[in-house]
């Protein structure tokens, strides 16, 4: 157990008195450990006197950085993993020792760099990977980077101008082992695999092009799991970190970041680049402890029995029971789970690895005992099995796991994913917007839209921080939220565009109908004018006829009046005659 302090409590004396306690303190001088190793690797006879002086001072400079970081960045409840021990020193020198002699001798090909500066660049790179990558915020990262810079200049003042110019210039220096290309024939078959050489590159665009090329090969090999990653600078850096971890023997990773940061995708791509077999469990409703142990056994069979490199991805969602992590903890710390492999199966495996063991150790016809073979099996398993844990720092589970399963943090190299920077957000938005063929606008508008999307996400992040400061309630806006935001925008745009398009079609149909009506009206107007002319002519004829009828009416009226006068006269005469007749009869 660790010493009390930094969030760790002491145990009661009544309990301690039951045990015999050893207090393991750090050695006073570790230069004898690492200095001897590094001097043996960089043999003086192959290099210049100046280079050898750098090698001699490298261990002291590393220890000074280590002590400075230990004294400054103390563990707290939020930074409980800020524990720096000999493991970190070992990881630094383990990374430095990956470089080959011929690569250092050819250092001038990287920006006309001196061999000494190349070694210092590699050493600084490994210090950053070990000390800086595990820190949880940019402020702490900048602090440690400044420590590394200051101590570098203090320990190697003779190279001050070259360090500032080559290692702190506009072009950062990266280290990876996949820059060399395979020899591929016309049929696309690899004839000669490229040598895996850990070397430097200071051209970010060339590195991005190379990774995009490898991602294209991955998509061709696994079309069902096709990836279209946006490789902005931050994503490239994380990819290089994961690739560095899984290429080294007996090395596992703990990737910490909120959902959507790209932990799993980058791990899959890095594992493909490193030619690792990738395995990830499929969790079902009935998936339990027994199934998980079978998965571990399957990985042991590939990594230990067959001797193939394996990258095992385990995420928060796949840890259905916290007991799963106990087995992962065992594998990381000891490389075995007691009772997992049946006796007969174990004997068969050990029989199979006997030949490669003798060949590797060059033991000839030696008959190794079972214990020796089993130790070789465990060593080969630990060398080939790279466990990549993809966890989220949100909630109390993360801290509890550090307390319950210490190997998850001690045996893994931690890479903490910070929130995406503005450049990353704009790059992601640019990719999605440029691939959005339905967006009907100018390039200038698209560019402004991409910047606006990135700024919106940053503004929401700042508001969430303000919300936490005022109400002490945490709200997380993750990269997955940003991707959902872009998808929501695209969906809303398509919906509204279709709606406007439908309205436009209806409007066009209405305009067409109006135009047709206008044409019909014009046609009818012409016909109406012709009809009006006919009506006018008919009206004139009618008027003439009416005039004639009027004249005839006047004549007929005169005749009628004449007839009426005569009728009246006749009636008067008849009345007079009748009167005279009656009078005559009376007489």
Topology:
Elements lengths: L12 H4 L14 H11 L7 H24 L13 H11 L4 H5 L9 H18 L5 H18 L4 H8 L6 E3 L6 E2 L5 E3 L6 E3 L2 H18 L11 H15 L4 E5 L6 H11 L3 E4 L8 H17 L4 E6 L7 H11 L9 H10 L1 H8 L8 H15 E7 L5 H8 L2 H4 L1 E5 L5 H13 L8 H29 L7 H108 L1
Helix pairs in contact: 2-3, 3-6, 3-7, 4-6, 6-7, 10-11, 12-13, 12-16, 19-20
Could you list some keywords that capture this structure?
587 residues; alpha/beta; 21 helices; elongated
Structure description:
The chain is of the alpha/beta class and 587 residues long. Helix content is 62%, strand content 6%. The protein is built from 21 helices and nine strands. It has helices at residues 13-16, 31-41, 49-72, 86-96, 101-105, 115-132, 138-155, 160-167, 204-221, 233-247, 263-273, 289-305, 323-333, 343-352, 354-361, 370-384, 397-404, 407-410, 422-434, 443-471, 479-586, and strands spanning 174-176, 183-184, 190-192, 199-201, 252-256, 277-280, 310-315, 385-391, 412-416. The strands form three sheets. It has a five-stranded parallel beta sheet. A two-stranded antiparallel sheet has the order 1-4. The chain has a two-stranded antiparallel ribbon with strand order 2-3. Helix 3 (49-72) packs parallel to helix 6 and helix 6 packs antiparallel against helix 7. The N and C termini lie far apart (175 Å). The mean pLDDT is 89.
What topology, given as strand order, has the largest sheet?
Answer: 6-7-8-5-9
Strand content: 5-15%
- The N- and C-terminal alpha carbons lie at a distance of 175 Å
* Individual helix count: 21
H/E topology pattern: HHHHHHHHEEEEHHEHEHEHHHHEHHEHHH
Quick one: overall form?
Answer: elongated
Number of strands: 9
Radius of gyration: 47 Å
Specify the biggest β-sheet: 5 strands, parallel
Give the averaged pLDDT, no decimals.
Answer: 89
Regions with little confidence, pLDDT below 50 for 5+ residues:
none
Estimated helix fraction: 55-70%
Structural class: alpha/beta
């Amino acid at each position: 157990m660790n010493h009390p302090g930094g969030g760790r409590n002491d145990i009661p004396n009544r309990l301690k008195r039951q045990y015999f306690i050893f207090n393991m303190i750090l050695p006073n001088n570790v230069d004898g450990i690492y200095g001897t190793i590094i001097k043996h690797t960089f043999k003086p006879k192959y290099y210049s006197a100046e280079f050898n002086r750098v090698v001699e001072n490298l261990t002291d400079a590393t220890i000074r950085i280590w002590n400075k970081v230990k004294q400054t960045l103390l563990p707290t409840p939020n930074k409980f993993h800020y524990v720096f021990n000999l493991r970190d020193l070992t990881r630094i020198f383990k990374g430095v020792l990956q470089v080959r002699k011929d690569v250092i001798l050819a250092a001038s090909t990287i920006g006309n760099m001196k061999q000494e500066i190349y070694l210092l660049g590699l050493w600084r790179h490994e210090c950053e990977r070990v000390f800086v990558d595990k820190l949880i915020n940019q402020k702490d990262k900048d602090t440690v980077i400044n420590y590394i810079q200051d101590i570098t200049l203090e320990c190697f003042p003779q190279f001050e101008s070259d360090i500032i110019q080559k290692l702190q210039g506009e072009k950062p220096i990266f280290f990876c082992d996949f820059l060399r290309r395979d020899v591929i024939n016309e049929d696309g078959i690899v004839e000669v695999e490229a040598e895996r050489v850990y070397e430097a590159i200071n051209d970010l665009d060339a590195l991005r092009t190379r990774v995009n090329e490898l991602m294209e090969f991955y998509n061709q090999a696994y079309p069902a799991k096709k990836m279209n990653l946006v490789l902005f600078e931050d994503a490239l850096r994380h990819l290089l970190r994961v690739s560095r971890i899984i290429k080294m023997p007996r090395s596992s990773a703990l990737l910490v970041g909120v959902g959507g940061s790209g932990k799993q995708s980058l791990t899959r791509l890095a594992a493909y680049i490193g030619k690792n077999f990738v395995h990830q469990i499929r969790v079902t409703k009935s998936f339990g402890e027994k199934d998980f142990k079978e998965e571990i056994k399957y990985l042991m069979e590939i990594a230990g029995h067959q001797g193939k490199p394996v990258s095992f991805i385990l995420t928060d969602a796949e840890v259905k029971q916290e007991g799963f992590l106990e087995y992962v903890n065992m594998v990381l710390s000891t490389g075995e789970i007691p009772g997992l492999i049946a006796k007969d199966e174990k004997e068969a495996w050990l029989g199979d690895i006997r030949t490669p063991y003798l060949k590797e150790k060059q033991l000839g016809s030696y008959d190794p005992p079972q214990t020796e073979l089993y130790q070789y099996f465990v060593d080969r398993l630990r060398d080939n099995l790279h466990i990549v844990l993809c966890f989220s720092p949100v909630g109390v589970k993360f801290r509890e796991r550090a307390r319950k399963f210490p190997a998850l943090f001690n045996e893994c190299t931690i890479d903490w994913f910070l929130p995406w920077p503005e450049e990353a957000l704009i790059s992601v938005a640019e990719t999605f917007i440029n691939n959005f063929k339905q967006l009907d606008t100018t390039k200038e508008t698209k560019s402004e839209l991409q910047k606006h999307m990135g700024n919106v996400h940053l503004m929401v992040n700042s508001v969430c921080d303000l919300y936490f400061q005022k109400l002490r309630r945490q709200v997380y806006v993750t990269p997955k939220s940003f991707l959902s935001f872009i998808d929501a925008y695209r969906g809303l745009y398509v919906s509204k565009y279709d709606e406007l398009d439908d309205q436009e079609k209806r409007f066009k149909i209405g305009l067409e109908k109006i135009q047709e009506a206008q044409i019909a009206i014009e046609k009818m107007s012409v016909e109406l004018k012709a009809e009006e002319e006919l009506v006018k002519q008919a009206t004139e004829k009618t008027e003439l006829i009416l005039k004639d009828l009027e004249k005839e009416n006047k004549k007929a009226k005169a005749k009628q009046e004449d007839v009426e006068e005569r009728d009246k006269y006749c009636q008067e005469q008849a009345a007079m005659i009748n009167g005279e007749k009656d009078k005559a009869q009376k007489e």
